[in-house]
Design brief:
CATH architecture of the largest domain: 3-Layer(bba) Sandwich
Strand content: 25-35%
Distance between the termini: 17 Å
Bound molecules: flavin-adenine dinucleotide
Order of helices and strands: EHEHEEHEEEEEEEHEHEEEEEEEEEEH
Radius of gyration: 22 Å
CATH class of the largest domain: Alpha Beta
Number of helices: 6
CATH topology of the largest domain: FAD/NAD(P)-binding domain
C-alpha cells in the first residue's frame, strides 16, 4: 500500500476503501482513470475487514460462499492491474471546490491534498466506533473485546457475547465450533439479526439468554460474568466478553461538504449515483435513494454506475457504457482487461 505524499493529482478520488470503493477502483482503472482510495482505517475492506473478516458471506453474486477476508483480497487483486494509490490511515476532512478546471481538492487528516476531477464517496457508515457496554467496558482489551478478527484465538475459551444484531449472532455462530462454550446475552426477547442466522443459532449449541443483561464482570483476568434474567442472577464462565452492541456511526467531516444529506447519515443520489454537487458521486451503504438496500451486492452495481457516469461527467464526449469487459483482451491469467477505452487523464504527481 502507498505512502502519503504531500499532494497528489488523480482523475478520481474514492473516499472509502470498503468493498464498494475497492470495486470502484477496479472500474475506474478499466475506464483508464488514475484513481486513489482514501480511508481512515489502516487496511482496505471497510466493515468486512473491521468487523467480520472470517464470516462466510453467501449473497455476493458468483460466490455461493466466500469468507470476508477472501472477498477483500479478491477485490484488491482485481483492482491491482490498474495500480490504484492507497492512502490509508487518513480521514478525508476538507473539500474545496471551484478549481479552474471544475475539479476538487480534498484534504486528509494527515495534511495530504488530493486534486481530483471527480470524487466518489463510498464512506459506508462513516467512521464507526463500537457502542460501549453498560458494564465491563473498563476492561476493554483485558477480556472484553468489540471485534473478533481471529476466531482461532478463542479455541478452548468460554465466550459470552452481548447483543442481538447481526454481529452478535454471526460471532456466536462463528465461535460455536471453535470455543469451549458460547453464550449470547440479549436484553430483548427478539433478535434483530437475520432470521435464518437466528434459527441456525437456536438449533446450535449456543446458550441463548434473552431478556437478560450482564450485570457484573468478574476476575482480572476475566473468568466469569454475572447475568441477570428476570431479576434472577446467574454466574456464567467467561474468558472473553464480546460486546456486539452495534456502532455509533458518524459521517464526521463529510457532513460539512455541502452535499444533500438525510438523517445526518446518508448522501442523497440520483439514478446516476450523482450527489447534489456535480462531479461528486456516492455509492454503497452511504448513499440514499428510494428503495435503497444496504448490501455489498447492490453497492457493487452502484459504484459501477457512479464510475461510468463520472467518466461522462469529466469527458462529455465519452460514453457512460464501458462496453462489455470481455471485449478487452486479458493481459494475464488473472483476466485483467488489456487496453480499455481511455479518458483524458490528469496523471498522478
Ligand atoms: C456483522 C455484519 C455482517 C454483514 N454481513 C453482510 C452479508 O452477509 N452480506 C452483505 O451483503 N452485507 C453484509 N453486511 C453489510 C456490508 O458489510 C455493507 O453493506 C458493506 O460493507 C458496505 O460497503 P461500503 O464499501 O459501502 O462501506 P464500508 O464497508 O462501511 O466501508 C466504508 C469505508 O469508508 C471509510 N470512511 C468513512 N468515512 C471516511 C472519511 N471521511 N475519510 C476516509 N475514510 C472514510 C471507512 O473507514 C470504511 O473503511 C454486514 C455488516 C455487518 C456489520
Amino acid at each position: 500500500m502507498d505512502d502519503a505524499a504531500s499532494s497528489l493529482i488523480v482523475d478520481v478520488l474514492i473516499v472509502g476503501a470498503g468493498p464498494v470503493g475497492l470495486f470502484g477502483a477496479y472500474y475506474a482503472g478499466v475506464r483508464g482513470l488514475n484513481v486513489a482510495l482514501l480511508d481512515s482505517l489502516e487496511e482496505p475492506g471497510g466493515q468486512i475487514t473491521a468487523m467480520y473478516p472470517e464470516k462466510a458471506i453467501f449473497d455476493v453474486a458468483g460466490f455461493p460462499a466466500i469468507r470476508g477476508r477472501e472477498l477483500v483480497e479478491n477485490l484488491v487483486r482485481q483492482a491491482a492491474p490498474f495500480a490504484p494509490r492507497y492512502l490509508l490511515g487518513q480521514q478525508a476532512v476538507g473539500l474545496e471546490r471551484g478549481r479552474a478546471d471544475g475539479g476538487f481538492v480534498v484534504t486528509s487528516s494527515t495534511g495530504l491534498r488530493i486534486s481530483a476531477r471527480s470524487i466518489i464517496i463510498t464512506g459506508g457508515i462513516g467512521t464507526f466506533t463500537p457502542r460501549p457496554l453498560p458494564t465491563g467496558e473498563d476492561r476493554l482489551g483485558r477480556g472484553v473485546v468489540h471485534f473478533v478478527p481471529k476466531p482461532q484465538e478463542y479455541a478452548e475459551l468460554d465466550v459470552v457475547i452481548v447483543g442481538g444484531g447481526d454481529s452478535a449472532v454471526d460471532w456466536a455462530l462463528l465461535l460455536e465450533p471453535i470455543a469451549k462454550s458460547v453464550t449470547i446475552v440479549h436484553r430483548r426477547a427478539a433478535f434483530r439479526a437475520h432470521p435464518h442466522s437466528v434459527a441456525v443459532m437456536h438449533a446450535s449449541s449456543v446458550n441463548v439468554l434473552t431478556d437478560a443483561q450482564v450485570s457484573s464482570v468478574l476476575g482480572d483476568p476475566l473468568h466469569s460474568v454475572e447475568v441477570t434474567v428476570d431479576g434472577e442472577t446467574a454466574l456464567i464462565s467467561a474468558h472473553r466478553l464480546v460486546a456486539a452492541l452495534g456502532f455509533i456511526a458518524n459521517l464526521g467531516p463529510l457532513l460539512d461538504w455541502g452535499l444533500e444529506i438525510v438523517q445526518r447519515r446518508h448522501l442523497v443520489v440520483d439514478t446516476t449515483m450523482a450527489t447534489s454537487v456535480p462531479g461528486v458521486y456516492a455509492s454503497g451503504d452511504i448513499c440514499e435513494y428510494p428503495g435503497k438496500v444496504r448490501l455489498i451486492a447492490t453497492g457493487f452495481g452502484e459504484v459501477a454506475t457512479a464510475v461510468n457516469n463520472a467518466v461522462a461527467f469529466m469527458d462529455p464526449g465519452a460514453s457512460v457504457f464501458p462496453g462489455h469487459l470481455s471485449d478487452y483482451a486479458p493481459t494475464d491469467t488473472a483476466g485483467a482487461p488489456g487496453t480499455p477505452t481511455t479518458v483524458n487523464t490528469g496523471g498522478v504527481s
